[in-house]
Amino acid sequence: MKRYPYNLFAVLLLLAFVSPAISQTQSDESIRDTTVAGTLSGRVVNESGQPIANASVTVRAYGGGRSGGNTSTDNEGNFQFGGLEPAAYLVSAFAPTYVRAARDPDVNPIGYYRVGDSVRIEMIKGGVITGAITRSTAEPVVGVTVRATMVRDSKGKPLPYGGGGYQQTTDDRGVYRIYGLPAGTYVVSAGRGNGFGYAVDPYDNDTPTYAPSATRDGATEVFVSAGAETANVDIRYRGEPGHAVSGIAKSTITTADQPMGFNITLSSVINGASQSSESFFQRSNNGFAFYGVADGEYDLIVQTFVPNSGVILSEPRRIRVRGADVTGIELTAKPMGSISGTVILEESKAPECQGKRRLIFGETVIGPWHNEKNAPKEQPQFVWGLGGPTVPDKAGSFTLYNLAPGQYRFNTRPMSRYWYLKSIAWSAPTVPAAKGQQGNRPADAARNWTTLGSGERMSGLIITMAEGAASLSGQIDPGEGQKVPSRLFAYIVPAEREKANDILRYFVSLASDDGSFKLNNLAPGRYWLIAQPATENESNIFSKLRLPDEIDMRAKLLRDAEAAKIETELKPCQNVTAFRLPLK
Fold this sequence. Notes:
The structure is a single chain. The protein folds into 5 domains: 2-125, Immunoglobulins (Immunoglobulin-like, Sandwich), CATH 2.60.40; 127-236, Sandwich (Immunoglobulin-like), CATH 2.60.40; 245-334, Sandwich (Immunoglobulin-like); 337-467, Immunoglobulin-like (Sandwich), CATH 2.60.40; 471-582, Sandwich (Immunoglobulin-like), CATH 2.60.40.1120. 5% of the residues lie in helices and 44% in strands. It is built from 3 helices and 40 strands. The strands form 9 sheets. Strands 19, 20, 21, 22, 23, 24, 25 and 26 form an 8-stranded mixed β-sheet that branches. Strands 1, 11, 12, 14, 15 and 16 form a 6-stranded antiparallel β-sheet that branches. Strands 2, 3, 6, 8 and 9 form a 5-stranded mixed β-sheet that branches. A hairpin with a 2-residue loop joins strand 20 and strand 21 (273-283). The longest helix is centred in the last third of the chain and has 14 residues, at 551-564. The chain is globular and about 80 Å long. Residues 1-27 have low confidence and may be disordered.
């Protein structure tokens, strides 16, 4: 099955945040040898827990030059990778007709794994859309490309990185069948199916006809359930010629490292948001042209990769197609921004922490996350995926490349059990900022957004990891004769007044169905605990809890926890178990 030609960098980022539903187990980490290669194993199952044989499994490490590989599951759904060096790994699986179960960030907030983990990957049977494409004469349209573009997920939410697309061609009867679809809401269209901006079949100069026989504004939305078939999604093909959108792309690069070509993305805009995209590859200075473009609003953006500069990108250009070609467009790609810094390790002298496993830089993933509330609406969403996570080198140095202008915070969570994130801060700049490069460098980069300008290269971010983390696990008690509510969370917040504004002292864990919970990588100190349910649609609670803007949320949580009067003190490297947390 074909897919839209989405940007590679955005796809890699999505693998980190939309990976299969995975659980893992870890050792006690009472060792310091962090150099020995090891194994990463697991099992691929369906939604009923039955094994999926012959599934393709891929493991990929963050950072260049690290180990990884591909394998297949056996008859029991088991897989294993050996000889892996210690690092943070992404694990993904593919099986025909199945789709990945979306990772619940409240269950697995990190989204990556390490040597020694046992991984359980759950996949769900995909849905099907089928129908027939005919002309007004009832003649079948043979060999036309039919696209199913997701516009909302299974919970009715718009997709953060634009619509996922799947496509197939019709057979000699004009019949199509698109399978392996994630649950959600789709619009279905026929025509102009290659997605590369130039015609390769007789229909590619036609504007898309949406089911039942409409333009995009009048398209019928189709809901697809997991494992179910939605039939008779027929299209009466209009066969209307579209318009051309053309121009030339160039760059500001003046060095010898000139790009070999440019990738131009045309994204349709519906209700102010990108819905679907297609690309054209412009070789050298030959120019670009998209054909078969329907009337409507679109965003154009150009990008390419240049050695020693990374991704270069143009400002988005909003265009309107109204009954005529749009020509003479010029797009100029410029270097993107970057943020570099260092991870510092603070070892503990507490006797309880001696002999514990040391934190490994290669397992410490640092991810830039932009402020979605003030992001430019005209910015195509895939742009935020260009600046993916990274890991520090052996000296602790790191650089986050390919960053669009905007406000950022930095997701960093240690995988080592006895380490915690102590602080994220900017050091004072050693030289004055250049004119027009006045990025905001807050002393506390965890509590405040960092503002990055267009093409700005910021340095001096200091992330401090400290040894001595504690853990706390136990059971939430809903009360006699009461059931555990769905999506119940255990929170732990600072009881020490001077720590009340320290974002990194706020933690949360989604309780299991039986009420059990576990909180890891906790800084030593005194805490209040409280259990509270979230609404069914609330997700990624840990990330929201640490957003710089969520001051009121943390203040209310702190007041509620103080009123509940459930307090504990955690010592360095202490593991508290069987904690009883009443639901008040």
